[in-house]
Amino acid sequence: MPGNIRSVSFVWVVLVCLLFCSRLTSVGAAPICANAQSGCHVLSLANLFDRVIQHSARTHGISNDLHSEFEQYFLPSKNHIGRVSRNCHTSSILTPNGKDNAQRMAREELTEVILKLLVAWRDPLWHFHQSMARHHDFNNFSSNKALEMSDMVHELRQGVEKVAEKMQVLGIISNTLSSLSSPEASLPSDSADWRLMKDFDLLYCLRRDSNKVQNYLKILKCRIVPEHGC
Amino acid sequence: MAVLSSSSNLLLLLLMSSLDWLSTPGFALLMGHQRVTSPAPLEPHITECISRDQATFQCWWSQGNYHNLSSPGALRLFYIKKDSPTSEWKECPEYVHSNRMCFFDVTHTSVWIAYCMQLRSQENITYFNEEDCFTVENIVRPDPPVSLNWTLLSISLSGLNYDVMVNWEPPPSADVGAGWMRIEYEIQYRARNTTKWEALEMQPQTQQTIFGLHIGKEYEVHIRCRMQAFTKFGEFSDSIFIHVTEVPNKDSTFPLTLVLAFVGIVGILILIMLIVVSQQHRLMVILLPPVPAPKIKGIDPEMLKKGKLNELNFIPSGGMGGMPTYAADFYQDEPWVEFIEVDAEDADTGEKEENQGSDTQRLLDLPQPVSHHMNIGFSNAVSYPDDDSGRASCYDPDLPDQDTLMLMATLLPGQPEDREASLDVVKKGPAPERGERPLVQTQTGGPQTWVNTDFYAQVSNVMPSGGVVLSPGQQLRIQESTSGAEEETQKKGKEHKGDEDSEEDKVKELQFQLLVVDPEGGSYTTESNARQIGTPPSSTIPGEGYQTIHPQPAETKPAATAEDNQSPYILPDSPQSQLFAPVADYTVVQEVDSQHSLLLNPPPRQSPPPCLPQHPLKALPAMPVGYITPDLLGNLSP
Question: Counting C-beta atoms within 10 Å of the first and last residue's C-beta, which end of chain B has fewer, N or C?
Fold first, then answer.
């Protein structure tokens, strides 16, 4: 009998432990929607949007910090605004410049604009990182930020592509975006101007473009899935 | 001297002009930078450009020291939007002369495009600074949040501190709903009559908790906001005041709950203690179960303690370990077999074997006191059925009373009596049995043939010459003893006499084997001899594992000739049973009549020898002692 009691109590303890452990793990983990589960779509799109917007905000923040640091170290002798606005390599991309324009723009177009911008920055950022590594004036902190910037823009682009995919699947936008698989072709041939830009100008352009991306994403999100923080 | 003074004046003039030149508001309006307070600029200049909602913006200017230009309209503001290489300077779309402000509405505002501002006087004198260029997103300063209010969140247990939840609404001018502006808020609070503001962490939610405010103090709270990842804050909102006075109720309830909790815990502890104390023994049993004492079936530890090894009950089969029940059934009719086996597995087996061997010889040839072994055998046999049935526990004395013993003996053919009875029988040793040679019969066939037969007899006495005196009139007993002895001898033969053993074994494997024990030499006659002796009178039935040998005088003669004058064998159902003195120990129940009395010795029938095996009990002599009366019937266990 004592053996029976012991075995029973042991089994009971094991069951209780399993119950609690499963509860703990279940509390921590949020349910993940599989690809084709019905009733799960809208929520996951908002979630995706939130994540992408958070990422773009972080990107913009870092670019801002980089730009300020650059200004600290290399205060330009004169105002560069006039110069820069002509020299941004993404100036050729047509982007909405006002709230009304952005709101009036079609979703597909807006998404396309975002992706174009992100794609255009892939190479310049990589080269920027290389040049940062060579510059000994900058401290490691800035060079890490520069490297981080390259990765972040890359991830942001992937995230936006995912969002676009999801929207296409849900039928929110039409399938005209499929042509964006290689948007490099859409860039004008003089996109190599960025190689002529100085680092500071590049940072200025990056800051501006990251802000554009953030804004457009937010507008898109509040138009399509307005819940949770619009 | 004059030259020096003039040069010094020139120098001074130069210095002053350079100072003037330096004091231009060049870097005052740098993009993204705070306005640098410089000594009063002399030129008309743009003071500030601010956007509230990132869709419109305003620019203020000042005439500086040019007081003649202070009249409205004296200075004009021009801007250029650098969205294309061919852009031109345009004039302010909307003047607010009272404020010296230019308002750019939505149509004239483009975000992310560089604007440059310049002032022109009526005479087309341009006052332009390159640092007055900006992009709209960088000049955004949101309006302060509205509807600021607070609610009491909690008061600490000590009653000295409290927490407050402050919430507000985003500024209406900022289009947060469309996502056009992402704002983060900063709350600042201070106690009254202090100068330093405490700032909480910036966060984008429209509510925040202020922890650790002191009861009784009055606090002032205001809020401001800015665009995320930008540096320019908007204006502060109007302050609100928080004041919480003491709440006396809380203190009284606090200790009461503590006291109740304490009392409850103490009561539970007392209960547990009571339970533990009262159920001590049971708990001990559960927690520390007693180790079971070793228990061997058939062995009474009390007997072991007393040292009476002889009286130990051995399991008839397989020795000291577990007793398989099948073995019991198998050898139920053959207690002698078990008897020998157990003896063989005793502690000093070798010695015992030798003893048994010599004892066997003595048993058969010499009437030496082998009662020891016989007793053991008897006791063993007696105890053997006890293991199977009827006993209350293994520790009960295994010596049943006389009556039941007799009953058992009578009911179960082959069960010898109590050892005292056997002893008596042995000691009876009737003289007429002397000179008879016991014929030991063993069974070699299957057990089923033994069920209906009784082929054992009880040894009444052992002849000094080695013969075994069997009880008269009890063919069973005779067969018993003889068979038992035979088995004994068989076993001994196995272990000690190789050739003879093998012969015996071989013989055993065949059907029925008669063994005539040589009372003198202790040797065994072979089967041929036995057959010679036994076969003529009886017809051997090969199929059967049993052959009956009629104890006819004719048969005994050849045996007598072979050995000494001792009767070679005894048959269970031969009329020769009359030769033997009636043994009053036990008999076999033949029938049960209508009055529930057991008929032990039905009238013997003359039956042909072949039929004898089927009716082995019919030739039993009348045994008055063996009758069972109805009152004794009650002692029988069904």
Answer: C
